[in-house]
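Journal club side-thread
Mid-discussion, someone asked how the predicted structure for our own chain would compare to the paper's figures. Pasting it here so we can look after the session.
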Amino acid sequence: MSRASRSTGPLDPSDLLDASALLSDEERAIQDTVRRTVREHAEPHVGTWFEQAEFPTALVPRFAKLGLLGMHLTGYGCAGTNAVSYGLACLELEAVDSALRSFVSVQGSLAMFALWRFGSEAQKQEWLPRMAAGEAIGCFGLTEPDHGSDPSAMATTARRTSGGWVLNGTKMWITNGGIADVAVVWARTDEGVRGFCVPRGTAGFTTRDIRHKLSLRASVTSELVFEDCELPADAQLPEATGLRAPLACLNEARFGIVWGALGAARTCFETALRYAREREQFGRPIGAFQLTQHKLVDMALELNKGLLLALHLGRRKDAGELRPDQVSFGKLNNVRVALDIAREARTILGANGISLEYPVLRHANNLESVLTYEGTTEVHTLVLGEAITGLSAFR
């Protein structure tokens, strides 16, 4: 599209600043492909999945065929796309439901990235091609029942034996845990925190799915339990030493959230906008009233600013210049504004806003989890506080 036609063509309320013009043809093609796929194969069914607390495992081979699993990694059957393309895919997945983005994020940015960055060549060869092909599912065991925001206090231990390691402990709130073929698990050892590759079926390793969730209902969330779980010596990720390793994985996942949350926000905004144009009260569409327009304008402003922020961080990541505190900036801002947009959209829909016939409250419920996982609002605030003042408030 020429510069002139962009300036005179129809306005896209979800892209008021024409941020799409800043994308390459390949990036736009990836975004369009993911959008078409999830709109056709997921959007018509997601309300049922949410209501029935069911994860759509049938979508996994389709995601693999699109190259979404570990898409920003290179080699081992991974697509090797740039960071912006990965972000755009996350946006389109979460525009349907956070559970879809969470699955892809945990598979690629946590489990696969941990193996790709810190694993042995044998571990990479065994797992990464299968995970990229959707033939094996991974999960990432860091969070514990009593140690969420402070992983340095983890209680899970790995003790050396003559034949390898013995793992004991519990991990909690683990996405994909109940369906994972392999878990990347972090434990305290005499030499510090280390990572381990634990296949399903290993003696002493069990999972229990968490029920009765009011958020991320279309996602599998589980407890991982290790009771004298014996592992061979080569189960350890050889390049992972200390907490820096799992935190590096979390930064990869947080980057996807920076984009994904905006997908949920876009759906809520577009739903509210359509509703405001069609719903009539007092003889005219509610979108013609000043108070409703004020809400829609505020939502559009935050959505479009968030898109520019995500794109800026994506370009910095592709240039190898993205800092962890900048990821915190993006996660803190974009999830917070996405949740605000979802809540405001609910008010425009009135009573219809609480129905699963509309996606708004489903997204709002999901975003309550996104607000907390991969670092709470408080944690990211203190990360930025330290970056600004040079003083740590964590200890």
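Post-session note: The domain at 244-389 is CATH 1.20.140.10 (Butyryl-CoA Dehydrogenase, subunit A; domain 3).
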